[in-house]
Design goal:
Helix 10 runs parallel beside helix 13 and helix 14 packs antiparallel against helix 16. The chain is elongated, with a radius of gyration of 29 Å. The protein is built from 17 helices and no strands.
């Protein structure tokens, strides 16, 4: 927004700042651990304190906040004052978005930056929607799990709109990387929140099909398994009644590939009341190392204790629940 052709010129040598008396930082007479600030930082902050205390909402104050932010972009007081000045000057907020975008190139995980950007988008309203979606898309193209970008994108969708193409965007991300758990999370967000899709129940059948295809392609990918469970949140009856899910578990088990998640899903199905056919018993017993008179649920837990040792104690605990359930 504001240009500075020569950053090397100190503020004390600039005639436009000659009327300002710098306000140094007061660390007291005996600072315990004084910070070794650079001369530029110390001077800039002293001038900022002066205009801040004077509440000077002027173009030069706006310029000074830019200089200060470039030295310390985490100073929330400077960002707050910049917003006050922007409002007082009725400044071009679209240009301010560009300023924030340039800062994000080197410091995209700065909380103050994202708070400021949301404030700008709120002020601009629907006019900022496309720009914000494109901004987050650009960041996510280089950092697919960028928390701030995902959080901002979800806020933009809910506050400003842009739902129409979001499911396609999620599909594009998952086509590029089916293991992208952030994209799976966003897909669930869209399916459950979009005002254009009819809600979870309306989308369930197609999303079950989508997740099953992903699971069969890569059974070791935990994300679609979790996504599938989320599609039946608080509806265990529908989960155990959908033959596609139990059949998919059986197919993975018979393939004897990575099957921790298939066993976990089958265990949940049985816990919810699913009645397995002998085929399921045969598939699970084929993974077991010795004969057992245990129930299928207990046998699944035993197999999981062996092939998922990191959570062996959890599976042992799950196993103790089956006698009580049977009774």
């Amino acid at each position: 927004m504001e240009s500075d052709p020569d950053q090397s010129i100190s503020l004390s040598n600039r005639p436009e700042w000659s009327d300002i008396v710098p306000l140094p930082q007061d660390d007291g007479p005996n600072p315990v651990v004084p910070i070794a600030y650079t001369d530029e930082f110390r001077e800039t902050m002293s001038y900022f304190r002066a205009v801040y205390v004077a509440d000077e909402r002027s173009p030069r104050s706006l310029w000074l906040t830019q200089r200060t932010i470039r030295l310390n972009s985490g100073n929330y007081t400077v960002w707050h004052f910049r917003r006050l000045v922007l409002e007082a000057l009725d400044a071009d907020l679209l240009s301010e978005l560009d300023f924030v975008g340039n800062l994000a190139k080197s410091n995209s995980k700065n909380y103050q930056l994202w708070h400021h950007r949301r404030w700008l988008a709120e002020k601009l309203g629907a006019a900022a929607m496309s720009k914000e979606l494109e901004f987050t898309k650009k960041i996510l193209s280089t950092d697919a799990k960028h928390y701030h970008a995902w959080s901002h994108r979800q806020w933009v969708l809910q506050a400003l709109g842009g739902w129409e193409d979001e499911l396609d965007y999620c599909h594009m991300l998952l086509t590029d990387d089916i293991f992208n758990n952030s994209a799976w999370n966003q897909r669930y967000f869209v399916v459950t929140r979009s005002p254009h899709l009819g809600g979870l129940k309306a989308m369930r059948d197609s999303e079950v099909d989508y997740s099953i295809k992903a699971i069969l392609a890569y059974p070791e990918n935990e994300s679609p398994w979790r996504y599938l469970q989320g599609l039946f949140k608080d509806d265990a009856k529908s989960l155990i009644s959908d033959p596609c899910i139990s059949s998919m578990c059986l197919e993975v088990l018979l393939g004897k590939r990575f099957c921790v998640f298939a066993l976990n899903m089958l265990l949940d199905l049985i816990t919810y009341g699913f009645q397995p056919t002998p085929e399921f018993n045969d598939a699970v017993n084929a993974l077991h190392t010795h004969e057992s008179d245990s129930s299928l649920g207990e046998t699944i837990c035993s197999v999981l204790e062996s092939i998922d040792p990191l959570r062996a104690n959890y599976w042992a605990w799950r196993k103790t629940k089956f006698p009580a359930l049977a009774g």
